[in-house]
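Same chain as my last thread, 16 residues:
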Amino acid sequence: MKLLLSAFSFFLAPAL
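reply #2:
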């Protein structure tokens, strides 16, 4: 679950 959140943050970081 933590890995999924990390991946999500990774893709969301540049979007923000």
